[in-house]
Specification:
This protein has helices at about 1-5, 20-25, 45-65; strands at about 10-20, 30-40. By secondary structure, it is α+β, with helices and mostly antiparallel strands. The radius of gyration is 14 Å and the shape is elongated. The mean pLDDT is about 95.
Length: about 70
């Protein structure tokens, strides 16, 4: 799902960790940590381009999995 919505700018996706804590996250919920590397073949990647990719990924996860971004 992340690779699909990352488009041509997603250069790497690495799973890092799974965190579970019923008291902090809610019963039965878990937090997944991934690292994303974005890269443009045509030049310097702008903040707006990176934000757009992250926004598409976030929207897809919300719509398809019911997930939410945790900061």
């Amino acid at each position: 799902l992340v690779k699909e919505h990352g488009g041509g700018l997603l250069a790497d996706l690495i799973y890092r960790d799974t965190y579970r804590d019923d008291a902090r996250l809610g019963k039965g919920k878990k937090s997944l940590l991934f690292s994303l590397a974005l890269r443009s073949q045509s030049g310097t990647l702008t903040g707006e381009e990176a934000d757009a990719v992250c926004g598409r990924i976030d929207a897809a996860i919300r719509a398809n999995l019911g997930g939410e971004l945790r900061a």
